Amino acid sequence: MEADAASPDPGPPSPAAAIPPLPGDFPILLDRILLRPLEEGDKESVRAFAGDPEISRFTRSLTYPEDPEKAAAWVEEHIAMTRSGRTVSAAILEKEPRRFAGAGILFLEPNHRRAEIGLWLGRPFWARGYGPEASRGLIDYAFAVLGLRKICAYCLASNLRSRRLIQKLGFRWEGTQRKQLLVRGVFEDLLLFGLLAEEWAPLSHRKG
User: CA 194 to CA 17: how far, in whole Å?
Assistant: First the structure.
């Protein structure tokens, strides 16, 4: 599940501007983590994690290790997109201690009542169950608060961890775009998955 940013650059936001309140309860308080809108203060954390080649490899537009400034631009872009209603771009924070762990994004298509979900975590927060927990929080928010009808997820065929998470959440495979992306000199297949609101309802109570 790659957190991509394929939209045109909206330009840097005004430092004095504040992200308007999002509909429903935000931040989203979960069992061990919370989700809140990305902030300017998250740049250093994103820069540190983006320098890990195992993270940037699977996040198509986040950054690359050789150019840490792309991480700051990524944060600014997502703050602007959340302001304009194009995304819900959320930081994933541990509750105790309060630490930045990663980001989860809903790329919104309100005219079609659908969104694409993307998520990444810093390596110190892998294998703790935060990915499923954050994903469920965003999916619940998308269906219950935003009233969406469908969520899509994409991942590289080689990203086995992301594929397992997507399928664990109940997404159904909808197709493969063969040799769709050039990633570090290798053409990769891109897998497409979808989840409908009526499919999520019987699954939403599940943990783990």
Answer: 35
Give pLDDT < 70 ranges for the chain. Answer: 1-21, 23-25, 56-68, 202-208
The structure tokens 């537009």 sit at 61
The residue among 148, 86, 81, 159 whose CA lies nearest residue 120 is 159
- Of 86, 122, 82, the closest CA to residue 107 belongs to 86
Distances (CA, A) of 9 to 81, 100, 153: 9, 25, 22
Residues 85, 6: Cα–Cα separation, whole Å: 15
Q: Are 105 and 118 in contact (CB under 8 A)?
A: yes
Q: How far is CA 208 from the centre of its chain?
A: 19
Token pair in block for residue 76: 């600014």
> pTM for this structure?
0.84
Q: How far apart are CA 7 and CA 121, in angstroms?
A: 22
CA distance 29 to 134: 10
Whether the Cβ atoms of residue 81 and residue 87 lie closer than 8 Å to each other:
yes
Instruction: Give me the amino acid identity at 121.
Output: L
